[in-house]
Amino acid sequence: MRIVLLGAPGSGKGTQAKLLVEKYKIPQISTGDLLRAEVAGGSELGKRAKAAMDAGRLVSDEVVLGMIQSRLAKPDAKGGFILDGFPRNIPQAQALDAMLARLGQPLQLALLVDVEKDVLMKRLTGRRNCSKADCGAIYNIYFSPSKAGNKCEKCGATLSHRSDDNAETVGKRLQVYESQTAPLVAYYKAQGKLRTVKGVGPMGAIFKTMCDIIETQIRPLAAVMGRIDAVAAARERAAAKAKAVAKAPAKAVAKATAKAVAKAKDKQTAKTLAAKAKPAPTKKPVKPAKKPAKVVKKAAKPKTKAKKAK
Ligand SMILES: [Zn+2]
After folding, report:
1. Residue 128 catalytic?
2. How far apart are CA 47 and CA 35, in angstroms?
3. Is 127 part of the annotated catalytic residue set?
4. CA of 148 relative to ligand 1 center, distance in Å
5. Taking the domains of the chain in order of start, what are their residue ranges?
6. Model confidence over 115-174: pLDDT tens digits?
7. Interval 177-211: pLDDT, tens
8. 254: which of 63, 116, 202, 234 lies 20 to 30 Å off by Cα?
9. Is 173 a catalytic residue?
10. What superfamily would CATH give domain 2-115+168-224?
């Protein structure tokens, strides 16, 4: 499943992404992590990214897309991916679509975790962290205040408020997000790939809704595609076999068969000798073991649930 996750800072998108990774065993691809890894690894793309960053420039979309592409080639991304933090604008979304089209792996779903702005403000500005490094408790003065006031209810240490969690900074961040994401939402909506999940309420319930959306949007499609692939592959194999048989001259076939018979006999003999330490068995024509014809498993018919579009 190939998913782009959209959601404001404070939407809980990161937490949900981790749960999705666990459930569906596909990697979450965050461009920030990719950049750090490529730079640290000293790859060609990493060097270019570092040069841009050192010069105070933004890393070009081309470089970021190159990193995503090489990440997608890793075995753990075979079953799909969750893109987080990319794309951020229409040109990036178009470039991503073009790249995925080249790979034959188009996006299947753009999932927006939607939370109202005043809730986001409270979530981000109300956050309080325990100042004791090995405690790590997190509170929110609006939603989950500490019972000990400005002290951690677990360890008694003072709670701290990050300086960039003030209303002005948070407001600006949300504004930037809004202006960047609104066009993307429209972009994926026009493609029929956008689905929205309300990011309020219990985390488990939000996750369940997301999974339901994924199952109904992607799974039936994947099953159909899988069946088509299997049928095509079976046809290809049959065609290749027919071609090989038609091409092979009769003499060669007879020779190959004789060779196979001899080989099978040798094997049988060696086995018998090893097992029983007896003289070779009497000459008895041993037929080569016929391989059972490959049975192409019929893919289960996908349940065509007529789901009402929202
Ligand atoms: Zn604490």
Report:
1. no
2. 10
3. yes
4. 11
5. 2-115+168-224, 225-268+296-310
6. 999 999 999 999 999 999 899 899 999 999 999 999 999 999 999 998 888 899 999 999
7. 999 888 999 999 999 999 999 999 999 999 999 99
8. 234
9. yes
10. P-loop containing nucleotide triphosphate hydrolases (3.40.50.300)
